[in-house]
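Re: beginner question about structure tokens

> Can someone show what the tokenized structure looks like for a real chain? I only ever see the sequence side.

Sure, here's an example I had lying around. Input first:
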Amino acid sequence: MLAIDAGNSKTDVAVATTDGAVLATARGEGFRPPAVGTDRAMQSLTRTVTRAFTRAGVTAVDHVSACLANADLPVEEEELTTALTARAWGRTVEVRNDTFAVLRAGVTEPRGVAVVCGAGINCVGMHDGRTARFPALGRISGDWGGGWHLSEEALWHAARADDGRGAPTALTRTLPAHFGLPHMPALIEALHLERIAPARRHELTPVLFTTAADGDPVARAIVDRQADEIVALVTVALTRLDLLTEETPVLLGGSVLAARHPQLDTRIRTLLTDKAPKAVPQVVSQSPVLGAALLALDHLNAPQEAQTRLRTHFD
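And the corresponding structure tokens:
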């Protein structure tokens, strides 16, 4: 089987036998069809898979389990399934959003809810063959948060504080200081004229959390809002799957959540205690490609011993 975890920033693949023995792995660049086009994204993915196949000494597998970023809608899953099937990597192909890989990596059976808060934010759930999910397309689908959005919020509040439209905040000092600039007007100009590359805006998210940890009320309010959104996603997913009153694992993944910021982490757990007291939150430490491989074993009805062997490799 071929397991693929293709996120926005990197791609991990693993070739394994159906009894859970890992034959080879490979890492490649991110998978971003909306940004570079499906053909170019598939070309990059093909290079990564080819390296893994070469190392494993195979040219094809029985089943491909692909957990892909930007597979947010059923039509996108269908299109990507067609694209992967055309590559003839496996006799069968199953495409899911990459959030499912985080969920499956953190549980012993396909049951629970996962939230990924990295560059963006998404939530999925699985129970009794059913799934709960959200489009996760940004503001047009009602989403709030993720690292990119948090950096934009920090900039917005800092700009308004600097010119008098908003409440005072230390972000007016800490954000420009990160780039060695003296004040917000200089930072705004540098970002607008792209003297600072647009991709570097994500660097401001850790600055936001540091400023919040130092007690700044505006920064703390942004962090609290992120926690509120995460708990809202979890609560809705649990409700849809009839798991709100059952002890259920809630997996927290992505760079923002993996950083274990005390304020964010504490507020999430406090709110869950009130809104979903049976939820059992935990930060996922396992590699998401493990989750993609476990989903492949689920598809193949592999025995528990195969799951154990697979997990041992990635531990």
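Each token stands for a local structural state, so reading them left to right follows the chain. The beta strands are 2-6, 10-16, 22-29, 61-68, 90-97, 112-117, 121-127, 130-133, 248-253, 279-283.
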